[in-house]
Each structure stands twice: as structure tokens, then as C-alpha cells.
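Researcher: Next sequence.
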Amino acid sequence: MHDHRPPRAGRDLRLAVDGLSLHAIDYGDERRPESAALPPLLLLHGGMAHARWFDWLGPLLASAYRPIALDRRGHGDSDWTEPERYGWERDLADVAAVCGALDPGPWTVVGHSQGGLIAAALAARRPGWVGALVLLDVPLHPTGPRLRRTGEALRKVPQLRWPSLEDAARSFRPFPTPHRIPEDALRHLARASFKPTGDGGYTSKFHWKIFQRNGAREANPLARFADELRDIAVPTLCLRGAESSILTPEEHAEMARRIPSARAVEISRATHNVHVEEPESVAREILEFAGLMPFA
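Model: Next structure:
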């Protein structure tokens, strides 16, 4: 039975990028003076999520890395902006700017779901800057019919408001269902997913106007994602939750075949949100993949 209380809160960072204030969490162990000198590791959350989804995995990697989780623009505690200032290229540029400001690298980049799509694109475009890649339950075909239908439905959701944090937290539902996230972890994520509106109410930290940008009539930058995996030249670990509804076993194997230096591993007792459901197993796989001693 796992204890799903976050091991350590981490240290908040603020970075000015493209006129916005972006928030990140440094999970490095400040009790160890050598922590700041450890190799950097970036954690990228999925769509509609935020950096606090790594509150369990991040501290477990701090024995070998300086793990930093970023809130992408319009997510978590990072700034919101106009719909036209969201989008794929903006996200890529933000990540590159944040990492450039924090450490020259090379970085190990860990991305979950949509964050993994961004991580893979960065690894393909910046092989000298990204030294290793970890893909956590990342869809092989992000523009496939099922995920496209989900996106169309989400675009219809307004920016809802609740009268209190308790009311907002009760409405929290992780995507997708079914899932195996324990109740205490759900409560932690729920309370970290909403912010005051200024009039006494609460709303999601996710800016739903992102979907206005994503629904624009323009070429989909992810249409050739599966083919572009062949451009990734860095060592890559492809992790899948064994009960995932986002990445099938066949797609998981195909993803690893397309990436020249990839290893595919399944995590048992986990669905799509594998890093919250089985953080110890995920951390162990990442550290072993890196050729380091597994954490105690």
C-alpha cells in the first residue's frame, strides 16, 4: 500500500518569459548541498494539468537529478494570456527559454501525455540540449479520431466558476476514467487545481481559452507526430500504464520501434496517469534507465 502524501512540496520558482510570469517547482533536496550541481531534469505535465501532478515523482528523482516541473502558460500557477498567444510553437519556445535560464544542460526531459509530445519535439529539434527523453503514456497518434472527438467536446466547456474552493474541489475529475489515483492524491490535486476569481469564487487554473487557439483553422502541428519520432537521436524510455486507455500495447511497441534508441516498459497497476498512481515504479525505471543506482 503506497503512501500517496507528497514527499516534499518543492521550492517555487518564477521565470519571466515572453512577457509572462511562468511558475516552476524545484524538487531538488535543499538538505543536500550538492543537489544544485546534479544534472537537470525537466518534468512536463499533460494537457489541462499542472506541475503539482509531479509532487510524488519529482522528489523520488532528487537523489540523482535536480528535478524541475514547469507550469506551461495558461496552466497551474503560470500566467494566462490571449488565445492567439497560446499554441504549439509558444509552448516549445517557453520550455526552451525556461531551461536555458536555469541550466545549460544537457537536460533529461520527462513528459506525460501532451507534455510528452512537447518533450519529443524538443528532443528531435535540440539533440545537443536534450540528453535523454522519458515519455510517460504519450499517445502515438494524438490526432486520431478518439482523441480528436475528446478535444472537440472539451472546446465546448466554458470557464466555470464555483462559490468556494471546497465546491470546486468536489467537481474535480481526472482525465481519463477509469483511473487508479488514490483518494488522498486526488484531494491534493483537486485543491491545487483551482484559484480565486477575485470576486470570492474559484475557477480552474487551466485557461479554457487555450482551446479557442487549438480550435483555429490551421495545420495541426501533431499530424505527423508518429513519423517524426524517427528524428529522435537521444536515448528514450517509453513508459506505459498497463491499463492505459490512451496508449495501446501495440502502439507502445510501435513507438519504441520508431525511435532509434528506445526502450519500452509497462508499469503494472497503472492507467494513463502512471506517474501519480505508481510513482515509485516510475522513478525506479527512470533511474535504472539512466544507468544509476535505484533509489532506496
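Model: The longest strand covers residues 11-17. Residues 11-289 form a domain with the Rossmann fold fold (CATH 3.40.50.1820).
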